[in-house]
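W.,

You were right to be curious about this one. When I first looked at the sequence I had no strong expectations either way, so I just let the prediction run and decided to look at it fresh. Below is the sequence, 256 residues in total, followed by the output.
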Amino acid sequence: MQIYNLDSKITSKSNSLLNCYIESQKELDISRINEIRIDCRNILEKNGIFEDRKNGAVYMAMETELKRLEDDIEYFNESNLEEMTKAKIDSSIENITLKLESLEQDIAFNFVESEYNLDRQYNENNIRSMLKTFFENYKANTIELLLKRGYSQNTINDIEEDIIEYIASKNSDIITEKFTQDGIKNITSLNESLDELSEKILNEVELRYNCEISGQVYDELKEKREIVKQKALQLQDIMYQIKSLDVKSKQILNEK
């Protein structure tokens, strides 16, 4: 029996899922970056460094570092998602072959698990390192630019202390945890979606095999048509209930 290009099908659908989760991860990352942006601006504003013509370069330097941080975290999370998807695709293709062999040879099917393992500590350490680099650059650039603009040493010292205090505080741990949790939740969700897809493809292998054995043509759109039919029946039932309620409402009004 032919596999009917199911390996290409699962690769295509898996990559489609991957792209959706990458976009979802980007939105989460941008949200967390904005939290850091607010904290960094607050440190400057607390010490009288507001965004104006004189201090525009200070804020631009901050934005440059934030963009670099965003790119680094985006690349890191995207690589994790891609690595897991590749491992899932490889195991799914192997399972398709094993499923077909089990049907043809009438032997037990042994599911092969993906070799990808999520390492939370590895993720957290990398995020922490990227955040540390960002704040070190943010501090150095801010101090350098404020010195050039003639700000007092007291103001510069206060800003430096506030940045160091932030890095050492629970705030830094919290934002690290948020980035880490976002990535783990997204990877876990993608993993579940890929598992569901793999299960559907394995069911399709068996359905195709049974159809071929019985001399029938496998109808790939049959399930979709059934779903559409069921939704149409549900909609028809809802419309009937609405009409019944309208009739009852009119009867009640007429009785009054």
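Here's what jumped out at me. The CA atoms of residues 36 and 189 lie 26 Å apart. And, maybe more interesting for your project: The helical segments are 6-46, 56-105, 120-148, 153-168, 170-214, 222-255.

Coffee later to discuss?

I.
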